[in-house]
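Q: May I have one protein plus its fold?
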Amino acid sequence: MSEHAPNGHGASGHASGLFPVPGDGVLARHGDLILLCSLEDSQAADDLLDLLEQVAAAGGDGRQFTSAVADVLEAVDRGPSVLAFGPSGSGLAITVSGGAWADITTADGRRSRASGAGSARATTALRAPTGSPGWMPARSGPAG
């Protein structure tokens, strides 16, 4: 998901990768597509895991995956907190809902936060960084 410097750290000086915090949820990865989901609605979590498998098997990119996740979340009354992301072109597609959030730092040092901000609705954004994400702490719970 990110380019590593020889010391295993991204350009920002932080270790590269995804850093979930402890809590009830599921973290799944298939290729470059990643899903972090709370377990408030186990059926929705199962549906999202199935979706991850289907999109990855079809060779889908981050935009296809995150758009499909947003569609699933729109169909459920009170869905789980979700962070789904993957590469899309030279950027990173992200869908965030509920209490999920992600702080993103690109290889060139730009920072941004994607947050569901407690909303039950999904938010999809396509970030177009000039470099790959250097590090990405993530949480599926109350935004912090």
In short: Helices lie at 42-57, 62-75. The CA atoms of residues 34 and 85 lie 5 Å apart. Residues 1-14, 129-137, 139-144 have pLDDT under 50 and may be disordered.
